Amino acid sequence: MSTAHGATALGPTTGSAPRVSSFFKRYWGAFQEQRKRNKLRGDLFDLTDRELQDIGIARGEIDYVASHRSIDPRGIRSADPMNV
Asked: pTM for this structure?
């Protein structure tokens, strides 16, 4: 059986602090996105069916629209006011 001789110096690791910081930034960003989705979802559920129809979504599409905010569920993009 062999014995290891000597000691290893345990000093501050410079690589772990940025990783931990990055983790918390990603976590905070995800938390904020979840709050935005929940707010949008609540605001859309507060609208009447007529108001939802005016903006082009059905009540059954609210969850999809809230979780995919950057995607237009009907594939229709509003025109730029300068190009009208």
From this structure: 0.58
